[in-house]
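ok trying again, last paste got cut off:
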Amino acid sequence: MVEIVDELKAKLVEIDGQMEALRREIAVLDAQKAAFKTVIKVYDPAFELAAPPSRTRHASTRETASGRVTELLKGRNNRHIVLDILRHCESPTTTAEIAERFTNDADLGDEAARLESALTSRFSATLNGLLKQGLVRQAGTADGRRHLWEISR
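nice, full thing came through this time. structure:
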């Protein structure tokens, strides 16, 4: 049984490595694409890159943000993320603050603001599950409506 778990953990590390390598490759390709566009514009100022074929169904900003959040959290344990953030907080914190801390830790840059609402929603569901398990508790409210969360001690 322990060997199976060890193999699964090793595979998870391998997958994380592959995903990171692909992210780096995408960043390099984005930089190359920008360079090509710049050079082409020098020779052909009217050049406009053709838009990729549109999907038949346009995803809303919310769906896109939610999909990106799913991609960010894939292969990670939301419970561990939330509990780790709460462990490092000096005082009870809101779900939005947990999401903000995650975006800072994940170094999402310009993308952070767009994803914060979807992350807050995802972490809210996680916190409710942790509350049912007795691992976290509500420690009042921030503005009369937003719960403050802390680890149960």
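cool. The mean pLDDT is 85. The radius of gyration is 21 Å.
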